[in-house]
Structures are given as C-alpha cells and as structure tokens.
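Anyone up for a design puzzle?
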C-alpha cells in the first residue's frame, strides 16, 4: 500500500539495531543516530526506530528514560519521529542471542543496519608503574595503543547448554561470536532492506595480536585485542572472492534462493577513536585524569582522541545512516587503486572538529591499497610508531588470514547451531 506521499510507508521508516547501549559509546550512538537522522530527514513522514540492547530490563528502562530525555532536549518538536525500543540480550549467552533474534524477526519488517557495539575488555588490572611511566614519557602512543593493561588468558563463558560442549571464550563470545550469531540470525530482516552490518572495532586491533590457531583468543594475554583483530579481518575481507563461500553461508537464510544472493548486506568496519567509555573500570579521579591525558594527546597532534563518547559515535553512525552512494564514493578512491573496504574511525582535530577518517591497519594499510597512502588526509595524518607502507605480500597474507577466519567462524557457527538445536529440543521434551 502506498502512503499519501506516493511512497511505500515501510521505505520511509528506518530500523536500526544497536547492541550494548546502556552507557558509554552505545548510548551515544543511539543519541547521535536520532540527532543526525532528524537533521538529514526533514519530511514529517520519515521516521527512525532505534532498537537498543542492554543486559537487563532495569538497565533497558533506565536507558530508555535517558534517551527520551535526550530527544526531548535536542528535538522537542520531532519526538514522534524517533522511537527507542529496549531489548535484553546477553551476548555471552547464545540462547539469549537466539531469543532476541526470534523476537526481532517476529516484530519488525526489516533492519536497515545493525551496529555491533557491545563488548567487554576482560582486563583485571593495570601495570601501574608501566602505565605511569609510559604516559609521562610517551604520552600520545601510550594513551592510544597502551601496553599496560592486564588480562588473564583462558576466560570462558558459563556453560551454554550442558557440560558436554566445547569451550567458548568469554571475551571472544561477547565481542565477536555473539554478534556473529545475532547478525546471521537476523539476516532475513537485513536482506529485505539491503541492510548493513556495522562492526565496532578498536584502534588497538592488530593482526600481530591474533593467532588463527587460537581463533577464540584463549591462549593469549590480550584477548580483547585478539577479538578486535578478528573483527577487522572479518569485516575487511567480507567482500573478497576468497572469502565468498563462507560469507554466502553466513548471509544465507532458510528461504534464500540462488537469485537472492545479491541482497547480501554490506559489512563495514568502524572504531570510536579514543574516548572516555567505561570499558576500563576506573575510579572517578582516575577517569578524569585519563580524560585530561586524552585532551593532552589531542593537543600534541593525535587525530584519534575524540574524548567524548558522542564524538566517538561519529564513524559508526555515519556508516549506519549514510546513503549507499555516499559510502561508495568515500571508498571509491581506495578501490580505484586496487584496494577495498576501509576501516573508518572517529577522528578529531585539535579544536574538536569531528569526522570519519580512514585508519591505517596492520596488514591492510589504508583501504587495502599497496604502497603509500593515496588520499592526502591519510598521508599527512599522524601514524602509529613503526607503521610502514603496505606491501603486496602483506596484503596477500591478510586476505588469506581473512579467508581462514571466515571459514573458522562459519564452522563454529554451524557447530553451535546444532548444539543449540539439541538443547532447545531437549528442554521442550
């Protein structure tokens, strides 16, 4: 049925799912989605529904209250055009992920984007002498790529079904695998809209922290960095021919026909820069000291210290809301030089001007382009110490590693889907 404006009413509605929204970056992503949608879509019949997840009904209700307050404060005349809907999920519990997926598939006509933001750090302590010395003597590097966070190896989720199941890393599941299962499960909604999967990674991600023989990061003392490196590998290689068989499997639905393969959602990769979120628990005095160090790093020339989570939300929101033409245009210069997907980060100038910027990534460079950066802004942006121009050999190794990651993740997904099917049948009998 057509609306009074001559358009399909469903096409005038935008549905976006955001995980991990009760505080920090996820909350700011929801706020910024509302603000930028209303700014770009002026017609009264155009609406936005933001479905956000928290881990409990109480957190969901509290978050909804704060989001509605933000909307009334920033857009008091447009409150009916944006709807916030709370949902509960524990991404470390695959049965919880399944339950959310079913509710979404049964409730909504489509999803235009899913922003996979939720996650845990897994850190249990800081090496304080190293942290103090590093921040005082090497400020920019140590507050951008810190080397003093401590996490134990081998942290596992609680049993998913029974004791007779394979191990599942807690950081891996919360940061990557729970999202991977969720995105696969809501693929029918994404296919209906030609939607997008927006992964939220980190500046700290590097392939040097990842071992394909330890996909879940169970043996590494840096499980967070390993999980974010895996996120980068999956998102940046998702449209490459070498990964295609496993990506098609991931994007498949029970009723997917051969002719629907072109409706696979696009995958994009983002990071929030360095902002003051609560992923690393600190006392209030230390939290504000951290923010002061972030501002100082920005003054010293760091492009990535967004400091506030609202500024950190810039890149994920841009990827979720922009037209496909805008995103294709932003990537085109990289593709024209033999590259591909770009890792888009939230950046800031010294005076706080916010933007989305290509991020140089170990093994992938800027957008997978071999050799020096081809975009002026990328060429002049401050680089990570030791960064070198991407070589053809490194690019090939990254592609092959991405292919192995996709294969490993699909095999793990299929294995766990079978285990969860059995568990659900058993619970009903």
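Challenge accepted. My sequence:
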């Amino acid at each position: 049925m057509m609306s009074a404006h001559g358009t399909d009413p469903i096409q005038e509605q935008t549905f976006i799912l955001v995980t991990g929204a009760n505080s920090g970056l996820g909350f700011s992503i929801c706020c910024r989605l509302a603000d930028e949608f209303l700014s770009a879509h002026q017609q009264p019949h155009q609406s936005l529904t933001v479905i956000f997840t928290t881990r409990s009904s109480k957190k969901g209700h509290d978050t909804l209250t704060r989001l509605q307050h933000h909307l009334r404060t920033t857009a008091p005349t447009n409150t009916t055009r944006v709807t916030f809907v709370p949902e509960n999920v524990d991404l470390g519990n695959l049965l919880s992920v399944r339950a959310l997926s079913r509710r979404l598939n049964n409730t909504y006509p489509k999803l235009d984007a899913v922003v996979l933001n939720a996650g845990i750090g897994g850190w249990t302590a800081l090496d304080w002498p190293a942290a103090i010395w590093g921040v005082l003597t090497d400020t920019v590097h140590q507050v951008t790529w810190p080397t003093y966070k401590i996490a134990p190896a081998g942290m596992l989720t609680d049993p998913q079904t029974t004791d007779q199941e394979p191990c599942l890393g807690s950081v891996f599941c919360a940061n990557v695998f729970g999202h991977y299962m969720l995105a696969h499960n809501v693929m029918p909604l994404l296919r209906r809209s030609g939607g997008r999967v927006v992964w939220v990674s980190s500046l700290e991600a590097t392939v040097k922290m990842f071992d394909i023989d330890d996909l879940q990061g169970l043996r590494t003392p840096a499980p967070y960095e390993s999980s974010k490196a895996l996120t980068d590998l999956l998102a940046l290689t998702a449209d490459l021919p070498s990964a295609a068989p496993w990506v098609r499997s991931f994007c498949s639905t029970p009723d997917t026909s051969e002719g629907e393969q072109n409706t696979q959602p696009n995958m994009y990769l983002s990071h929030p820069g360095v902002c003051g979120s609560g992923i690393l628990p600190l006392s209030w005095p230390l939290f504000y000291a951290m923010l002061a160090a972030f501002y100082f790093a920005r003054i010293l020339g760091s492009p990535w210290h967004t400091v506030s989570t609202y500024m950190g939300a810039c890149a994920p929101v841009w990827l979720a809301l922009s037209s496909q033409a805008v995103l294709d245009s932003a990537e085109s210069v990289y593709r024209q030089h033999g590259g591909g997907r770009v890792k888009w980060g939230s950046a800031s100038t010294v005076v706080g001007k916010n933007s989305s910027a290509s991020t140089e990534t170990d093994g992938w460079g800027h957008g997978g382009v071999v050799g020096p950066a081809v975009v002026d802004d990328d060429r002049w942006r401050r680089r990570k110490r030791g960064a070198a121009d991407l070589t053809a050999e490194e690019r090939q190794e990254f592609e092959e590693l991405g292919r192995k990651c996709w294969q490993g993740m699909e095999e793990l997904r299929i294995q766990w889907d079978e285990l969860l099917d059995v568990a659900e049948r058993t619970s009903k009998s």
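A detail worth pointing out: Residues 392-428 form the longest helix (37 residues).
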